[in-house]
Design a protein that fits this description.
The chain is built from 15 helices and no strands. It has helices at about 5-20, 30-35, 40-50, 50-65, 70-80, 85-95, 100-110, 110-120, 130-145, 150-160, 165-180, 180-190, 190-220, 225-240, 240-250. Bound molecules: calcium ion (CA). Calcium ion binds near residues 145, 147 and 149.
Length: about 250
């Protein structure tokens, strides 16, 4: 099934469809599918044809636009992303709402948690440097375990600025040198949304697919609840082909 491929492949499929020489009226794939598909299956297919960042921007907007903020959603959408991925959502947010995602998040969060989210846009894209992994592991030890209290800023800087592969090397160093998992250290040293956001970054560093799979498991496709369905589709897109295929097959039964 063509539709269970990656979201990027589906975006290409849409362009190819309209540009196909046989498609003399240059119709859109979405529009033609709307004519032949019905019910939940049609809805699911059309949602999968949207670029993922369209829904992510809507989810982020929805998590902040009302009184109060859904911090868990901010964490889940933003923390797994590298700078380039985050940029796509920033641009989409700007396009849909004529507003700055960065400013919105800043206005809706506070303290150390705000600092984490605000620094995610600058994450480096570098290969792992073993020397840096060693010095970062020591820095994290001195900022956490070794210290009475915690130097949160040190943790935030390393967790938001280093590339994911660099952090993975650092966490391995930490485990070798101090025999402890960084996920344990975060929970031991910090709490609240700061701990949750850093923990999400650590989990995604250690095994992003496992993190995404667990999040998908936690949500259900509710076709009567547009918001919940969008979140489900976003999580489905992150886990990939196999899950998308299973989801669509279930709907055709
Ligand atoms: Ca400590």
């Amino acid at each position: 099934m063509e539709l269970s491929k990656s979201n990027a492949a589906r975006q290409k499929l849409k362009v190819d469809y309209s540009n196909d020489t046989a498609n003399t009226n240059k119709t859109k794939l979405e529009d033609d599918l709307k004519k032949v598909l019905t019910g939940d299956f049609s809805k699911a297919v059309l949602m999968l044809l949207e670029a993922t960042e369209v829904f992510e921007a809507q989810i982020l907007h929805g998590s902040m636009k009302e009184l109060g903020t859904d911090e868990a959603l901010l964490i889940d959408i933003m923390c797994p992303k590298n700078a380039a991925e985050l940029k796509l959502v920033v641009e989409e947010f700007n396009k849909q709402y004529k507003a700055s995602l960065k400013q919105w998040v800043k206005d809706d969060t506070s303290g150390d948690f705000a600092k984490v989210l605000d620094q995610l846009y600058e994450r480096e894209e570098k290969d792992a440097d073993p020397e840096l992994a060693k010095s970062d592991a020591i820095a994290l030890y001195e900022a956490g375990e070794k210290k009475w209290g915690t130097d949160e800023n040190k943790f935030i800087d390393i967790f938001t600025k280093r590339s994911f592969v660099q952090m993975l090397a650092t966490f391995k160093q930490y485990k070798e040198k101090y025999s402890k998992d960084i996920e344990f250290i975060i929970q031991d040293e910090m709490s609240g949304d700061l701990a949750k956001s850093l923990l999400t970054i650590a989990k995604c560093t250690n095994d992003k697919s496992a993190y995404f799979a667990k999040k998908l498991e936690e949500s259900k496709p509710d076709f009567k609840d547009e918001k919940a369905l969008r979140l489900y589709v976003v999580r489905l897109e992150r886990t990939g082909e196999k899950d998308i295929k299973a989801f669509l097959e279930k709907l055709t039964k």
